[in-house]
Design a protein that fits this description.
Keywords: Metal-binding, Zinc, Zinc-finger. GO terms for molecular function: zinc ion binding. The chain is mainly alpha-helical and about 260 residues long. Among the domains are: about 80 residues, no CATH class; about 60 residues, no CATH class. About 40% of the residues lie in helices and about 10% in strands. The chain contains 11 helices and 5 strands. Helix 3 runs antiparallel to helix 4. The chain is globular and about 65 Å long.
C-alpha cells in the first residue's frame, strides 16, 4: 500500500509508529502539490515553485538532476530546502514505482468533490482526451525487465508508448506486460480481507495528551448557509497554466528496441 498525504506532523508520526506499515507492505509518500505549496511559502518565488513541480513530477533521473541544478543556480537556499527532504518521498524519479504515477492527493479531493455534488444526483461519465506528440529522443526498451528508459513503464506499471511499439514489432501482447497488481484477481484480493469498523467513541482508548483550544482560531458567523466547498488557496493552479506547462514539455518518439 502507498499512502500519499501532506507532511503534517501527526500523520508522519502515526505512520512511523505503525508497526505493520513498513516496506514492502506499505510506504509513505508526500503530496507534491503540498510540497510545492510549502516550498513557495518559504521561498516566495513562483518561478522556483514551477521548477519544484517539474523536479518532483519528472520520471527520468537525469532530467531531475538537471532541474535541481537549475534551482541551485537560481537560489541556493531553495535547493537546500528541497535537498533536505527525502527524495523517495516526493519525487517520481526516486519513488521506485510505488505511486503508479499518482503524485498528489488530488484523487481523494476529486472523490470528495464528486460525493459532494452527487448527493442527490446520479453519477456522470467523464470523458478524457489525450493528445500524443512526438519528439526526437531515443529510449531503450527492455522487454525482459519490463522497463523503459523514459521511466513511465517503471512508474505506472503499464507499457509506455515506446514499449507498445516494441511489443507490436515482435508480436508480443502489450497487455501481458502490464504489472500483476492491475489484474482483476489482484484487485479482488485487495478487498477480500476483513476490515475492522470504527467503534463508537465510548470504546476509544483514552489519549495520553490533553486537547487545548487555540484561542487564535475563532468561528466566524455569517448570515446564510455555511460554506461546504473548501476555500481555494495558492495551490489551486489554473488549468490554462497547467496546459501551457504541458505544451512546453518535450515529447519522446524514437525507440531503440531491445528484447534481451
Amino acid at each position: 500500500m502507498c499512502l500519499i498525504s501532506d507532511r503534517h506532523g501527526g500523520l508522519i508520526k502515526a505512520v512511523r509508529e505503525g508497526p505493520d506499515f513498513v516496506s514492502p507492505h506499505g510506504v509513505h509518500r508526500y503530496c507534491l502539490r503540498h510540497v510545492c505549496s510549502n516550498f513557495n511559502s518559504s521561498i516566495k518565488n513562483v518561478v522556483l515553485k514551477d521548477l519544484c513541480w517539474q523536479a518532483g513530477s519528472e520520471y527520468q533521473l537525469r532530467k531531475f538532476n538537471r532541474i535541481m541544478e537549475e534551482i541551485k543556480k537560481q537560489d541556493v537556499k531553495a535547493f537546500a530546502y528541497l535537498d533536505q527532504i527525502n527524495k523517495e518521498k516526493w519525487t517520481a524519479s526516486h519513488d521506485g514505482g510505488w505511486q503508479c504515477g499518482i503524485l498528489t492527493t488530488n484523487m481523494s479531493e476529486c472523490i470528495n468533490g464528486v460525493l459532494k455534488g452527487a448527493r442527490r444526483l446520479p453519477s456522470a461519465s467523464v470523458v478524457t482526451r489525450r493528445q500524443n506528440r512526438h519528439g526526437m529522443n531515443t529510449h531503450v526498451v527492455k522487454i525482459a525487465n519490463r522497463e523503459c528508459s523514459c521511466g513511465k513503464w517503471n512508474q505506472f506499471g503499464i507499457p509506455c508508448s515506446h514499449a507498445q511499439k516494441v511489443c507490436g514489432a515482435y508480436n508480443i501482447s502489450a497487455a501481458s506486460m502490464v504489472k500483476d497488481y492491475y489484474d482483476v484477481m489482484a484487485y479482488n484480493n485487495t478487498y477480500s480481507k476483513h476490515f475492522e469498523p470504527v467503534q463508537s467513541e465510548d470504546y476509544w482508548d483514552d489519549p495520553n495528551f490533553q486537547l487545548v483550544h487555540d484561542p487564535t482560531i475563532r468561528t466566524v458567523t455569517r448570515p446564510g448557509r455555511n460554506q461546504t466547498t473548501r476555500i481555494h488557496n495558492e495551490m489551486e493552479w489554473r488549468q490554462t497554466r497547467a496546459r501551457q506547462e504541458a505544451q512546453q514539455q518535450q515529447g519522446d518518439s524514437s525507440i531503440q528496441e531491445n528484447v534481451s
